[in-house]
Design a protein that fits this description.
By secondary structure, the chain is an alpha+beta fold. The chain contains 21 helices and 8 strands. The strands form 3 sheets. It has a 4-stranded mixed β-sheet with strand order 6-5-7-8. A two-stranded antiparallel ribbon has the order 1-2. Strands 3-4 form a two-stranded antiparallel ribbon. Strand 7 and strand 8 form a beta hairpin. The longest helix has 21 residues. The relative contact order is 0.13.
Length: 481
């Protein structure tokens, strides 16, 4: 007869990963001017992306309070609407509009993701607290964004959650929980507890981003993660305890249950690297691994035009790309919805080859009904370029290269078009920033009259005074008139 002495009930010290996140959130001072200026650009770009999403009823039907007509005193205001919500529901609303069109920022490493998704939680909580009298300023938003970017990106550098089937919004939940905890006034110990709750929470499967299950959930998954982060932080504020060995506990912890027994690896300590190197989606609302392919396709479209030819003359298209793009967005066969199309590289290349543009409207059912698109998609294939794959992970490069080789029906082979760095890359920041501002102008123009647009642009462009603006006054700029 075997004797079992039972599991030890002694609660261990918190996992190192939890403590390092809490240390960073509570003790690190953000002094990098580059990080803070990039955060300013990220803030206005992210809100602009949210405003643009409001043009699509598939998005707006998910918004508002749980119970129609509910108005919460001192509630979170949702940009572009007149909703006034509790911060949990506000985080879902803001996080959903931010992410809906796949047009906000990006960071690519072993794990992929969109660090500005965290603004859903940050702005919801900060706006609510500011309306209750807490003296929160835009500077607090910018610092929280830098730290959320850093936590999400730092965990993503060497740890591939997609390899075990988990979606990257787990990192949104963790990062948002951490920074929101500080905004809510939680202590260092409480922040550890809150982050542990984020890790133990049920995590999303990536299947809603991949064929054959691709669907709209990928567009509101970040909003769901933001709302969950706020909820967990508020539970800790009310006295809920944490799980100190949530990652390392044998058999029952995150590593053993969900990460194949591997511990997280880190490339560098938390600082400001991620915000400084974040990737902006400036010209095209397309999954980021295809951004340079879209740029190359537009170059080919113009070449064909000058030759007196069109996409009808194309026999084949070869896309040299990175391994990540092949795993995520290389799809064949019917594409059934908006979410399917903006995550299919052959669609994102075929459309600009035909029409000379790629916009949010390019993914609608009406746009996709043109038979030329699927006809051209069938002529497109991807191959992995090992150099592109290596440079993709190189911290000194972080390139996202694509190259298009087009053969025409008459046997002509056009010179290959190679684009290694998208316009939103740090190496092209000087070139990209004016275009990012133009993108923001387009997005606000559909919601506000010229006088109010002018007021918004003057406010967000005032680098000296914007950081001192109260959060609720900042949010009021974007409330539906």
């Amino acid at each position: 007869m075997s004797v079992h002495h039972g599991e030890s009930a002694i609660r261990p010290e918190p996992d190192k990963v939890l403590k390092e996140i809490a240390d960073y959130v509570h003790n690190y001072q953000v002094t990098s001017e580059l990080a803070l200026e990039t955060a300013r650009l990220c803030l206005i770009d992210t809100i602009g992306c949210g405003l643009e999403a409001l043009r699509f009823p598939e998005c707006t039907r998910l918004l508002g309070p749980v119970v129609e007509g509910t108005i919460v005193p001192n509630g979170t205001r949702v940009p572009g609407t007149n909703y006034q919500l509790d911060p949990i529901r506000g985080a879902f609303n803001i996080g959903t509009i931010i992410r809906w069109l796949d047009f906000n920022d990006c960071f690519l490493a072993a794990e992929w993701g969109h660090p500005s998704d965290n603004l859903g939680a940050i702005l919801a909580v900060a706006d609510h607290l500011a309306r209750r009298g807490q003296p929160l300023r835009v500077s607090d938003l910018l610092e929280s964004m830098v730290k959320a970017h850093e936590i999400q990106g730092g965990l993503a550098l060497l740890n591939s959650f997609n390899r075990v089937g988990l979606d990257h919004v787990v990192l949104v939940k963790v990062a948002s929980t951490a920074v929101v905890s500080k905004l809510l006034g939680l202590t260092h110990a409480q922040t550890i507890n809150a982050v542990s709750q984020a890790w133990v929470d049920g995590q999303s499967l990536r299947t809603y981003r991949h064929a054959p299950n691709t669907g709209p959930r990928k567009s509101w998954a970040a909003g769901d993660a933001c709302s969950r982060a706020v909820s967990l932080a508020l539970l800790i504020k009310k006295g809920e305890i944490g799980l100190p060995s949530v990652l390392t506990a044998k058999q029952w912890g995150f590593y053993d249950v969900l990460f194949k027994g591997k511990e997280f690896q880190f490339q560098m300590p938390y600082g400001t690297y991620i915000m400084e190197n974040v990737l902006f989606k400036i010209s095209y609302p397309a999954e980021f691994h295809a951004q340079t392919a879209v740029e190359a396709a537009l170059i080919v479209h113009e070449r064909l035009r000058t030759m007196g030819k069109s996409s009808d003359d194309i026999k084949s298209v070869r896309i040299r790309t990175q391994e990540a793009a092949i795993r995520i967005i290389d799809k064949q066969g019917p594409l059934d919805n908006f979410a399917d199309r903006d995550h299919a590289i052959n669609y994102m290349v075929a459309y600009p080859l035909i029409f000379g543009e790629l916009t949010s409207n390019s993914y609608t059912d009406e746009a996709a009904a043109d038979p030329r698109i699927d006809s051209l998609r069938a002529k497109i294939h991807c191959v992995e370029d090992q150099v592109f794959s290596v440079d993709y992970h190189d911290p000194a490069k972080r390139s996202i290269g694509n190259a298009l080789l087009v053969e025409l029906n008459d046997g002509t082979v056009l010179d290959e078009v190679v684009v290694e760095y998208p316009i939103g890359h740090r190496t092209r920041r000087e070139e990209g920033t004016p275009l990012l501002i133009e993108k923001f102008k387009r997005h606000i123009s559909r919601h506000f009259n010229e006088a109010h647009q002018k007021k918004i642009l003057e406010t967000v462009s005032d680098k000296k005074n914007l950081p001192n603006l109260a959060v609720d006054r900042f949010t009021d700029l974007f409330v539906k008139p």
